[in-house]
Write a structure and sequence with these properties.
Blueprint: H1 2-28, E1 32-38, E2 44-49, E3 55-60, H2 63-72, E4 76-78, H3 83-88, H4 93-99
Parallel strand pairs: 1-4
Antiparallel strand pairs: 1-2, 2-3
Helix pairs in contact: 1-2
């Protein structure tokens, strides 16, 4: 019974992440890029980079789940932090202030 609840909760997280990533792609252009980053016991971070350079992220329980989300979202392409992906990111002043803790 506990495993059923756990499985249902996992499916709900995946569905929510797919909805979030699909909304990001719709808002920031096609194709968008996805970089999966393992973050230890916390799981995985799915970093989204839109065609317009916007950046967003979704945290998931593990790398396999993050990769499943990428596969489930049309127009979301798996990438690494290579030169092209890094150059595609456009960070504005507001984001820089937020990251600086101001």
């Amino acid at each position: 019974m506990a495993e059923e609840k756990s499985g249902a909760a996992q499916e709900k997280k995946i569905a929510r992440a797919v909805k979030t990533a699909s909304g990001f792609v719709a808002a920031h252009g096609k194709p968008s890029r996805a970089v999966v980053e393992p973050v230890g016991r916390a799981g995985a971070r799915l970093v989204l980079v839109g065609d317009d350079g916007a950046m967003g992220d979704v945290f998931l329980p593990d790398v396999a789940t993050a990769e499943a989300v990428v596969e489930a979202v049309p127009d979301l392409e798996r990438h690494e932090w290579d030169r092209e992906t890094t150059a595609a990111v456009r960070i504005g002043a507001a984001h820089r202030h937020k990251m600086a803790g101001r």
